[in-house]
Design a protein that fits this description.
heterodimer, A: about 550 residues, alpha/beta, six-stranded mixed β-sheet, 20 helices, 20 strands, B: about 375 residues, alpha+beta, 12 helices, about 60% helix, about 10% strand, disordered N terminus
Chain lengths: ~550, ~375
């Protein structure tokens, strides 16, 4: 399979000039890509894995500079002129990015966007380019390609858009396809399909793939060789099988062990029921108005019943759009809903804002995005004590400060940092701050809305550990919403699988994972847990 | 962590601190900022140090070109002297200049009145007039007067007023209107826009339709109406300008408030049970301030231009008070004969607007570095 070396990177260094001085993003790395092989570059955020490839393609931001050698078939890409470079870039080496939503121009049809580079690079006529575009769409298995040529990007799903991106990248028959986290923004089942497609295309067309990712699960199933990066350096490289079987560097070992482990025992049967929802229904109105006629109704949550006991963790699993976050918010009465919601034998169904206010102390929420959920203009101390202003207004500012110190210690952050601002913290630290904000009120029920999805694997594990410790210490009940089955499995003792606002299947964790009954659950499990190589299964 | 004492917290760097650091790195913006401060200081303090009042008329110096040497010029002395002597109804026999003083021998058919020398004092050119000697017959006399040194660095206008002091006074007015009308627009706009954006729903609809209606009023027509009903005055000026410009501000702020309302940190505050007022105070307004500050620096030049435009049309401030717009309007009429009347005020106005715009750009980059 491995042929001659077509791309080799020698002593590549990337620097960014910022206001705080020079940041060395990539510190002299060497790597090479042989014809037809799949190379994975693995690392957590900030490891410089994306910047390496951006530098190789001369796509760095304006304040960045790259030194070293990027040798593609005898040409150093770093010193090539723009027109020379464009003969390679986009033709012989092409890229696909993480965000299929923003990589396509919303104003042009798929057909236009596919045909334009074909016509420019190959000088084909309109009809020939159209035929070629059609062939490409068929190649990436888009159903009904004739019609799709005339579609706009917003008419397609995320997975289909990523397929179009792949088709565009393949248009000029590249030697190397650089895929920068191509499946991170997609649901697990779609992710599996896209990876399958990539593996199949590689077999058919024989190009090399450079796969940049943080997800070791994908690497294991996909790559021939692996480079593990940390802090801008390659810490370990080798054949994928060997590296996974016998990692040498501590960091690699740590990454491999970063999958959250452990299982949660179910609470005792006689544990009191804390939060209960009966036939909860949430409807969203879409469109409509004075002249637009009656609005369209979307049932985001369709007659769902949940019972959460003290000390229990219910995992709510589903793909994007399944209504799992909406359900979480409806149960906290943050969204208007139908049906009965009871908390500690108190009926909340009709409670209005002011009646809910004293209860907010008991019912807390932690969000997915640790960057969006903390106000950028407030210090960490102010953020985590905001709830105290509402629920314990008699506290003096000194006492509040003391509580903030306690809360920060509890979530494993150094209390000296309480006068810092959120942007001075990493993603994992910010999620700890968000957790501290919820915990300072000593709640009974916490809805965790994808609290680990935006974090690196190793940080995820720490957050999972933290949440577990907090649960044990304070006898908390969690509603754990996630699309990540590995984390859900480690966290919860009961699982609800949701699809399109309805419960597909529910039961104790081991039962769901061990013997899924419904076809949809089986697909989910297969996509997440399967370890067979894509190349073999394709 | 076993220590019970609370360790002293580290002081963090706020976003404002970051923005200030970025702004300091922006040379154009910092230069503009210093320039603007200098301009404001000169306009406020300058008129006290300029020897001429902005209202004083010098009939001898109508439309004098700017010069860094003192007036009168040698050739002007004779003209001025002849003017003064003619008012005495006597004839000049001879005159000579000795240093700072002129000596004039005059003759007359009738006996000379010694009070006549006051005509020399009244002239803008001479000072300290004395009757040196009178002939025995009283029909001729020698008078002397010192030449008054006057500087007109920017020249004088059509009625002989010093352009430097007038330009500085005009700067006071223009900057004051810019600032005051800017503040009026920002205050109304922020309060109105934030309310509409945060309340949302029907309230928002109604409030923004009112803005739309006000937008559709022709601005000049609106100002002419105001002038017709209330007469021309200074306060009315910036009320009118501010009343029109808050509409933009309200729209910008409403958009911001709408997007902030959907931010997760606002939802988190709602989940904590924070009241609407607390959310607006602690979350919405601090996060709004960035765009508001940016828009304010771009609004002030807009106000100055609007005022200039109104003054140019004759709807603005009234003589003898003046503004850059008024001066430019006068200058434009005299562009052929006295171009300095246009050049100096225009330079002041344009450079100030430049500085304000650079600062606005710099602030935008500093507060919103992601958009670069």
């Amino acid at each position: 399979m491995a042929g001659e070396t077509i791309l080799s990177v020698k002593d590549l260094r990337v620097r960014f000039r910022t206001l705080d001085g020079v940041v060395n993003a990539v510190k002299g790395i060497n790597l090479h890509v042989d014809a037809g092989e799949t190379v994975a570059v693995v690392g957590e955020s900030g490891s410089g894995k994306s910047q390496t490839m951006m530098a190789a393609m001369s796509l760095l931001a304006s304040n960045g500079e790259a030194t070293g050698v990027v040798d593609y078939r005898g040409k150093n890409l770093l010193t090539l002129g723009k027109s020379e470079l464009n003969k390679v870039r986009g033709r012989k080496i092409s890229m696909i990015f993480q965000e299929p939503m923003t990589s396509l121009d919303p104003l042009y049809t798929i057909g236009n966007q596919l045909m334009e580079p074909i016509r420019r690079h190959r000088g084909l006529s309109g009809a020939e380019a159209r035929a070629e575009a059609l062939r490409l769409l068929e190649l990436v298995k888009i159903p009904d390609p004739e019609r799709r040529l005339k579609s706009y990007p917003h008419e397609m799903s995320g997975g289909q858009r990523q397929r179009v991106m792949i088709a565009m990248a393949l248009a000029n028959d590249p030697d190397i396809l650089i895929a920068d986290e191509p499946t991170t923004a997609l649901d697990v089942t779609i992710q599996a399909q896209i990876l399958m497609l990539l593996a199949e295309l590689q077999r058919k067309l024989g190009m090399a793939i450079v796969f940049i990712t943080h997800d070791l699960g994908i690497v294991r199933r996909f790559a021939d060789r692996v480079y593990v990066m940390r802090y801008g350096e390659v810490v370990e490289e080798g054949k994928a099988d060997e590296l996974f079987a016998n990692p040498h560097h501590d960091y690699t070992k740590m990454l491999l062990a970063a999958e959250p482990t452990g299982r949660k025992a179910a609470p005792p049967d006689n544990a009191p029921i804390l939060l209960e929802g009966r036939n909860v229904e949430v409807e969203f109105k879409i469109g409509g108005g004075f002249l637009a006629g009656p609005p369209m109704l979307l049932k985001a949550v369709d007659r769902i019943s949940v019972t959460l006991k003290r000390g229990q963790t219910i995992g709510i699993v589903g793909e994007s759009g399944s209504g799992k976050s909406t359900l979480g918010r409806a149960l906290l009465r943050l969204l208007p809903s139908e049906g009965v919601i009871r908390f500690a034998n108190q009926d909340l169904s009709k409670a209005d804002k002011s009646e809910m206010r004293p209860l907010r102390k008991e019912l807390q929420l932690v969000f997915q995005d640790p960057f969006g959920s903390l106000s950028p203009r407030m210090t960490v101390g102010q953020i985590i004590t905001e709830g105290l202003l509402v629920h314990e207004p008699s506290l003096s500012s000194k006492e509040r400060d003391k509580r903030a110190v306690e809360a920060l210690r509890e979530v494993g952050l150094s209390p000296e940092t309480r006068n810092r601002y959120p942007h001075e913290f990493s993603g994992g630290q910010r999620q700890r701050i968000a957790i501290a904000r919820a915990m300072i009120l000593k709640p009974k029920v916490v809805v965790l809305d994808e609290p680990t999805s935006a974090l690196d694997r190793s940080v995820q594990k720490q957050i999972v550990e933290l949440l577990r410790t907090l649960q044990a210490d304070h006898d908390l009940s969690y509603l754990f919403i996630s699309h990540d089955l590995a984390v859900v499995r480690a966290m919860s003792d009961y699982i609800i699988v949701m699809k399109q606002g309805k419960i597909v299947e529910e039961g104790p964790t081991e039962e769901i994972f061990g013997h899924p009954r419904e076809a949809y659950t089986k697909t989910l499990m297969a996509a997440a847990i399967d370890e067979t190589k894509f190349r073999q299964s394709a | 962590m076993t220590d019970t004492a609370i360790t002293a917290p580290v002081v963090g760097r706020s976003l404002w601190g970051d923005a200030w650091a970025r702004l300091k790195a922006n040379k154009a913006a910092m230069f503009s900022l210093f320039y603007l401060i200098a301009m404001a200081t000169v306009c406020i303090v300058g008129p006290f140090f300029v020897p001429h009042q902005y209202t004083t008329i010098y009939p001898d110096y109508v439309r004098t070109p700017p010069s860094i040497s003192a007036y009168p010029k040698p050739e002007m002395i004779e003209t001025a002297m002849n003017d003064a002597v003619r008012r005495m109804r006597v004839d000049v026999k001879e005159w000579r200049q000795e240093g700072e003083r002129v000596f004039i021998t005059v003759t007359s058919a009738k006996p000379l009145d010694e009070r006549n020398i006051r005509y020399l004092d009244r002239s803008d050119t001479f000072d300290d007039a004395k009757l040196e000697s009178t002939a025995a017959d009283g029909l001729s006399a020698v008078m002397s007067a010192s030449i008054k040194q006057q500087y007109f660095l920017f020249g004088t206008d059509n009625t002989g007023r010093d352009l430097l002091s007038r330009t500085l006074m005009a700067g006071r007015i223009s900057l004051a209107i810019g600032l005051l009308a800017g503040i009026v627009a920002v205050v109304i706009g922020v309060v109105y826009g934030a309310t509409a954006g945060f309340m949302g729903g029907k309230t928002d609809e109604v409030m923004m339709r009112i803005v739309d209606v006000l937008y559709s009023l022709p601005f000049i027509f609106f100002v002419i109406m105001l002038v017709v009903f209330f007469g021309r005055n200074f306060v009315l000026m910036f009320l009118a300008v501010g009343a029109v410009l808050w509409l933009d501000m309200a729209r910008i702020v409403r958009g911001q408030a709408l997007s902030i309302r959907r931010q997760e940190y606002v939802q988190a505050a709602e989940a904590l049970g924070v009241r609407s007022r607390g959310i607006v105070q602690r979350h919405v307004i601090p996060n709004l301030l960035g765009p508001v500050v940016i828009y304010m620096t771009l609004l002030v030049p807009q106000v100055i231009i609007l005022e200039s435009f109104l003054s140019f049309l004759g709807l603005g401030v009234q003589e003898p008070m003046t503004s850059w717009g008024v001066l430019i309007s006068v200058g434009a009429k005299n562009i052929g004969t006295a171009n300095w009347l246009l050049l100096f005020p225009a330079f002041f106005l344009v450079s100030t607007l430049f500085a304000l715009n650079f600062i606005g750009d710099g602030l935008r980059d500093a507060l919103d570095p992601k958009d670069r």
